[in-house]
Design a protein that fits this description.
398 residues; Rossmann fold; alpha/beta; 2 domains; binds adenosine-5'-diphosphate; binds magnesium ion
């Protein structure tokens, strides 16, 4: 794993009695009454928390929650999260109403080995997102070790994700370790052929992913809204489909690069089109090379699905990022769901990055059929772009 130290390298002798500051991602969704609707982010942190507890550490948890923008917002306190964590781990879980200062110090002092303290939302301080060194130092006060387990914010250089590592020995938690193992291995030493399926609305948001992944993959499938910029670059009529005209040259360059390096790019051959962007609008399946001028493409068609399925039959590894259609509307979700089913049935290693792709798979009830679904949409994207995530970069080298 990227040559970074992880808590697997820490034994009881290293942890017993120590105060360990763990940056987790407890930014869980809640309903209108503030009740947690999905606690996956909390359960994902439990292996790290319990490993530290079992080895006698005193565990201090920090997270952001919502977007309070540097102020105290009552509805964005972490109390509901602390309550849920208490139910999940059954041990002593305290909560303090600040993340720095005297109240934290005295709460930490009363922790016994195996106890947990949940700090208040770190984004109540504007210094958090500014990665202010003074604030990072305050966070590190009274702590012995830093563990990063918030993959979803590892791409942000904030005080509690990266800055604090200047003041404490810094280790990856199990969640980070798992994410890096899957993502890094799938890109650097994949079981081949490596197939990338890249979709989503905009080519501009994925251009760096496309470029970086093209160098790694054997086959690249491009679907979703961004496919239309490629189809237009090839000279086809795309009607009213979403298109970024200022990215046509880049699309051409990517296709030329694929040709020069012997990589296969697969674009949709048929599309589901509508006149009006509405779930109940009458739809038609047409050739992706001749979309009627008054229609827009909202999903890949059945021929395209068959072509992709065929590629998946022999794939060793599949990385999927971005839905192939407007999957939020049930009538335009068929292509995305068909590919999700094909991935579920495939023997390939299947890695899902991207928030909307993960949501689509969850909606299709196929989450447990994938090898790995990344917990960090933005972070996994930046990873696929070949960028170094600041939170990861700040960890100790092996
Ligand atoms: P991810 O979060 O998995 O990285 P993106 O955010 O890049 O994915 O893209 C998801 C969005 O792309 C969805 O909201 C979906 O509606 C949109 N999309 C997919 N296909 C099309 C299309 N043909 N036209 C317009 N939008 C599309
Ligand atoms: Mg998205």
């Amino acid at each position: 794993m990227l040559n970074k130290k992880s808590i697997s390298d820490l034994s009881r002798a290293d942890l017993d009695g120590k105060v360990v500051f763990v940056r987790v991602d407890f930014n869980v969704p809640v309903d209108a009454n503030g009740v947690i609707t999905d606690d996956a982010r909390i359960t994902a942190a439990v292996p790290t928390i319990n490993y530290l507890r079992e080895n006698g550490a005193r565990v201090v948890l920090a997270s952001h929650y919502g977007r309070p923008k540097g102020q105290v917002v009552e509805s964005m306190r972490l109390n509901v999260v602390a309550d849920r964590l208490r139910e999940l781990i059954g041990g002593r879980v305290e909560k303090v109403d600040d993340c720095v200062g005297n109240s934290v110090r005295s709460a930490v002092n009363s922790l016994k080995p195996g106890d947990v303290l949940v700090l208040e939302n770190v984004r109540f301080y504007k210094e958090e997102e500014q990665n202010d060194p003074g604030f990072a130092r305050q966070l590190s006060n009274g702590m012995d070790l830093f563990v990063l387990d918030a993959f979803g914010t590892a791409h942000r250089a904030h005080a509690s994700t990266a800055g604090i590592a200047q003041f404490l020995p810094a280790y990856a938690g199990f969640l980070i370790e798992k994410e890096l193992n899957f993502l890094d291995k799938a890109i650097q030493t994949p079981q081949r052929p490596l197939v990338a399926i890249i979709g989503g609305a905009k080519i501009s948001s994925k251009i760096d992913v496309l470029k970086h992944m093209l160098a790694k993959v054997d086959v690249m499938v491009i679907g979703g809204g961004m496919a239309f910029t490629f189809l237009k670059a090839q000279g086809y009529e795309i009607g009213k489909s979403i298109c970024e005209n200022d990215k046509i040259e880049e699309a051409k360059a990517i296709m030329a690069e694929a040709k020069a390096t012997g990589k296969t790019i697969i674009l949709p051959v048929d599309s589901v089109v509508v006149e009006k962007f509405d779930n109940d609008a009458p739809s038609q399946i047409v050739s992706s090379h001749e979309i009627p001028v008054d229609k827009e493409g909202v999903d890949v068609g059945p021929k395209t699905v068959e072509i992709i399925k065929d590629v998946l039959k022999t794939a060793g590894t599949v990385m999927w990022n971005g839905p192939l259609g407007v999957f939020e509307l049930p009538n335009f979700a068929k292509g995305t769901f068909a590919i999700a089913e094909a991935l579920a049935a495939s023997n390939a290693i299947t890695i899902i990055g991207g928030g909307d792709s993960a949501a689509a798979i969850k909606q299709a009830n196929l989450s447990d059929k994938m090898t790995h679904i990344s917990t960090g949409g933005g972070a996994s994207l930046e990873f696929l772009e070949g960028k170094t995530l600041p939170g990861i970069a700040a960890l100790e080298n092996k």
